[in-house]
Amino acid sequence: MPEVYTKKSADNLVETVKKLVDEGFSGPPWRSLTACPPKTKFEAQHEKEEILLLMRRHPITNLWWMALIAMLVGVPLFWNEFPLVTNVSGSVQLALVVFWYLGLAFFAIQNLLLWFYNVYIVTDERIIDVDFFGLLYKNVNATQIRKIEDVNYSQVGMMSSVFNFGNVVIQTAAEQRSDDTSEEGSAFTFGAVSNPDQVVKVISELMEQEEKEEYEGRTR
Amino acid sequence: MENLIQALSLSLVVGLLVKVSLVLLTLLSLVTVRQAGLMDRVVSVPIGNWFKRIAWGFFWTCLVLTTGVILIV
């Protein structure tokens, strides 16, 4: 049987992705859910592979560290209440203030980088889960759409209901051997992504499309 | 006099700790620069350059302030 490769051009995009693009989800790639993000690439992307969805945690999940920083910013104003600080010289106090604010800036930059680059990607061929933990550890999981067995999502808590975000869990045929499975149950857990129902719909449609292609005898 | 000596000792100890911490923070900021570059290589997005610039800006700020603290305090 001849091998026929059909690139999924804009015309072949699954219905839900088209709908998301129409609804304005194709905007700047710093959003929690971006459909067909422009000028975006990832490591090990195939030549003709198209990114359909780019996801990251909902921005509201950054609230805890932003609130913490907002509280800690004012701490040097009350340092004179502590005897340890009042007993050191003025120049050392100034150095302490410099260290305090640089430390806060470092904390903010770290959290911002980890939020921005911990992404989940759905392409027309695969799903990719990129996880960075701390400064020096990354974990990248990838699987083909045809290997997905089941996909579901859960929304737990008031915040996720109000801001419409939740966890999308994708089960694959093979047993997952990944560092990422310990806390999340599956190597492919898209944590706190916005519009999880739409994400599940897109993946389901891709699975259907893949099954249809296999049935018609088209392979990649 | 005794209080003065005590205060001076405390200042020295705290000053030294702050200097060492600032040097470590500067090294960590350099690691952050590298990390931002590697992250951008894994997932390349149009605004990735801004994060690299932020990381570099933070590193130079750390370096200048740490040098200043070490020289002045």
Describe the structure.
The complex is a heterodimer of chains A (220) and B (73). Helix content of chain A is 36%, strand content 25%. Chain A has 220 residues and is α+β, with helices and mostly antiparallel strands. Chain A has a five-stranded antiparallel β-sheet. In chain A, strands 7-8-9 form a three-stranded antiparallel β-sheet. Helices cover 90% and strands 3% of the residues of chain B. Chain B is mainly α. Chain B is built from two helices and one strand, in the order αβα. The mean pLDDT of chain B is 89. Chain B has one domain (18-72). Chains A and B meet through strand 2 and helix 4 of A and helix 1, strand 1 and helix 2 of B. Strand 2 (41-42) of chain A pairs antiparallel with strand 1 of chain B, so a sheet runs across the interface.
Number of domains of chain A: 2
The proportion of residues in beta strands of chain A is: 15-25%
In total, the number of strands of chain A is 9
Cα radius of gyration of chain B in angstroms = 18 Å
Mean pLDDT of chain A, as a whole number?
83
